[in-house]
User: What shape does this take?
Amino acid sequence: MKLWLLDLASGLGEENPIISLWLKGEDGSTWLLRREYVPSFYVVGDLERAASAAKAEGLRLERCSRKLKGKPVEALRVYAGREDLDAYASKVFGRIKGLEVYEDDLRLTTKYLIETGLKPCSWLDVQAEPSGEKDGVRVLEGGEVREAEQAPPPRLRVMAIDFIFFGERGSAQADRDPIRLISLC
Assistant: This one.
C-alpha cells in the first residue's frame, strides 16, 4: 500500500521503543504504523573494556568501522532497547577511561530515519496488516516499509503557526516575557 509519511513519534513498548509513523493514504485516509525499534549507538576507544561492560549489561553488540573526523576507526555498535540512550550510555560507559560514545544523543525518530533511509514528506510502500481502527485512524503493526516512487503529495490541509517572543533579558521566558507577534498561515 502506498502511504505518505507525515510525521514520526517514539514511545515505550513492552520490551523495546516503538516508532509511530503517521501516514496519509492516496484517498486521504489517515494511518498509524507502529514498529518496534531497537536503537543503537557507537563506542570508540578501548573496545575490549567496552565489550565487557556491554556484555555485563546483556546488550547486543557488533564490531564495525566508522569514520571519525574523516578518519576510519574501529568501533562497537551497541544496541539498547531503551528510549534514554544518552543517560544509559553514560551509566554503562561513563566511568571507563579512554572511551567515547557517539550517536547516543540523537532523538529516536531521527536515528530511525537515518538508519532506514526514509524521508519525511515522501511516499512509502508499506507492507503490513491492519490491526484495527481508533478515532478514524487505521492502525498497522510491524510489517515492511521502503521508499516508494515519488509523486506529487496527497491533498492535505496545511496550517503553520509561529510565535515571536521578546526577551527583556537573555532568552525569552514564558512567565516573564510577552508574546509580541503570532503569525498564522
Summary: The helical segments are 47-56, 85-93, 108-116. Residues 42 and 102 are 5 Å apart (CA to CA). The longest strand covers residues 123-134. The chain has three helices and eleven strands.
